[in-house]
Amino acid sequence: MHERDNNTRKEHATPKRVNGKRVVWPIIENNVKILQIYNKGLEYAILSDNYELCHPLVWCKDFLHDVVHSSLTGKNFEIYRLKYNPSINPKACIKETRILVANARDNRMHKKIDGCLDFINQIEDRIGIPRSKVRKCLNPCLNYHENNVFIFQGNKRWIFSPPMLSLYTLLIRVGFAHKIGKDYNSTIQDLKSGNIKPYQSKDTRWITEVEPALEKIIRVGDKKIFYKDINLNYPSSMIVDTMHNRMGIIGYAHDMVAKVTGNPVIMPYWHMLT
Asked: What pTM does this model have?
């Protein structure tokens, strides 16, 4: 992978944990089953300015940029049975990136957090993004406990465009297979070669597909690739189906190929630089 000057890297500094935090859990509608490609593993939720979950925990991370889009545009949506109304539900925090992650089936999740954060911090150093931190959730809801619910707090650049938010949530999941102190790219290559087992079965496929996009973001920089106005990165005219299915990091990687082959892309501005 292309890398920035190694002199700018903070060599394997200890990942930063901060004090735990209580969150406000949403009221879940009974008998509403959100349609998702996963039914187990890592779950996500966007948090508000007041550390409220903006929506129920979801395994499919694409719902997160749907919620951010709706928070910015003020338009409610329903997709795959997830309903969100920014007039009723808490709006996503956009002054920084706040992602709650949980896995009810992983009682050793807390032992993997430092490795995951090291993985993300190394990539942040390469891009030039201030380092993320992790907080333990102090009031996990039913079926969870303090060892498997955490809050990732990152710079607002991670939430400033759908591909960056999608990449961040993918890196969190991939990072749970990383060992602290190891080079992040070695972890990626070991996943691709099968030398280490991914945290979730499809992660090897996803990180392989998005690797060219990650390389480009590291090489060019997110601030040069995406609009400086967050509202332009989440167009108000875009329908939720396109936002959900085409605007994540995999969609961005696929559009990189489309651009090279002369085919149309969803957001031409994002592909002006190569």
From this structure: 0.93
User: Residue 58 in 3-state DSSP?
Assistant: strand
- DSSP designation for 47: B
Residues with pLDDT less than 70, the chain: 1-17, 29-31
- φ, ψ at 154 (rounded to 5°): -125, 175
Domain count, the chain: 1
The reply to whether 261 falls in a domain is: yes
The CA distance from 225 to 78, in Å, is 30
Q: Is residue 1 part of a domain?
A: no
Distances 256 to 88, 216, 221, 268, 270 between C-alpha atoms, Å: 37, 10, 15, 10, 9
pLDDT digits (tens, 9 = 90+) for 153-181: 999 999 999 999 999 999 999 999 999 99
pLDDT digits (tens, 9 = 90+) for 3-14: 344 434 455 555
Is residue 68 situated within a structural domain? yes
Measured on CA atoms in the order 177, 183, 187, 190, is the torsion positive or negative? negative
Distinct helix (H) and strand (E) counts, the chain: 9, 6
Q: Is residue 84 part of a domain?
A: yes
